[in-house]
Specification:
Layout lengths: L2 H31 L1 H25 L1 H6 L5 H19 L1 H34 L7 H8 L1 H20 L1 H29 L4
Helix pairs in contact: 1-8, 2-4, 2-5, 2-8, 4-5, 5-7, 7-8
C-alpha cells in the first residue's frame, strides 16, 4: 500500500474515532440525564441477553447432546431462561422485579466484598517487613484496603436503606463512565499519529 493510501486510511481512522467518541459522549450525557431509565435499560438488556442466549442454546441443543455436552437439564435451563428473558422484555412487572433483585444482589455483594477486602487488607499488613520491595510497598498501604472495604460496606447498607437512590446512582455512574470513554476516544483520535 502506498504512503498516500496509508495516510488516507489513518486520517479516516482518526475522523471515525473522533465521531464515535462524540456520539459516545452524547450517549453518556443522555444516560446521566436520565439515570433511572439508564438503570432500567440495563435490566432490559439482561432480558434480551437471556432471551437470545436461550434461543441459541435450544437451537444447538441436539448438536451439543450428540457431542455429549448437553443433557435434559441443559434444555430445561434454556427453556427457563427463554421464558424469563421474554418476561423481562415484555412485562413491566418482571422488568421491575428483575431490577429490584439486581439491586439487592449488588448491595449484598458490596457488603461481602467490603468485609473480604478488609480481611485481605489485614492479611496484607502481615507482610509489612517483607524483603521484596513491591510486597513491602503494597503492605505499607494496607490501610487503603480497609478504607475501601468500609466504604463498600457503607454503600451496601445505604443501598438497602435507599434502593431507589442507589438505582439512580448506578445510572449516573454508567452515564459518567460512558462520557469518560467518549472523551478518551476523542482524545485518542486527535492525538493519533499520522502514518
Amino acid at each position: 500500500m502506498s504512503t498516500l493510501a496509508c495516510d488516507k486510511v489513518q486520517k479516516m481512522k482518526k475522523v471515525l474515532l473522533i465521531i464515535l467518541g462524540i456520539l459516545t459522549v452524547i450517549g453518556g450525557m443522555w444516560c446521566a440525564a436520565t439515570p433511572g431509565l439508564t438503570y432500567l435499560s440495563m435490566v432490559w438488556v439482561i432480558g434480551f441477553v437471556m432471551f437470545f442466549h436461550a434461543i441459541e442454546e435450544m437451537v444447538t441443543y441436539s448438536d451439543r447432546k450428540a457431542l455429549g455436552f448437553a443433557n435434559g437439564w441443559n434444555l430445561c435451563g434454556s427453556i427457563l431462561a427463554f421464558i424469563c428473558g421474554l418476561l423481562i422484555i415484555i412485562s413491566a412487572k418482571a422488568e421491575f422485579l428483575t431490577g429490584v433483585a439486581l439491586l439487592y444482589y449488588l448491595f449484598f455483594w458490596l457488603i461481602f466484598a467490603g468485609v473480604f477486602g478488609i480481611m485481605a487488607a489485614f492479611n496484607l499488613k502481615k507482610h509489612t517487613g517483607s524483603e521484596i520491595p513491591a510486597v513491602a510497598t503494597a503492605a505499607g498501604k494496607w490501610w487503603v484496603g480497609v478504607i475501601f472495604g468500609i466504604l463498600m460496606i457503607i454503600a451496601g447498607c445505604l443501598g438497602f436503606a435507599h434502593p431507589l437512590l442507589a438505582a439512580i446512582s448506578i445510572g449516573l455512574i454508567v452515564g459518567f463512565e460512558i462520557i469518560v470513554t467518549g472523551v478518551n476516544m476523542v482524545i485518542a483520535g486527535i492525538t493519533m499519529p499520522s502514518a
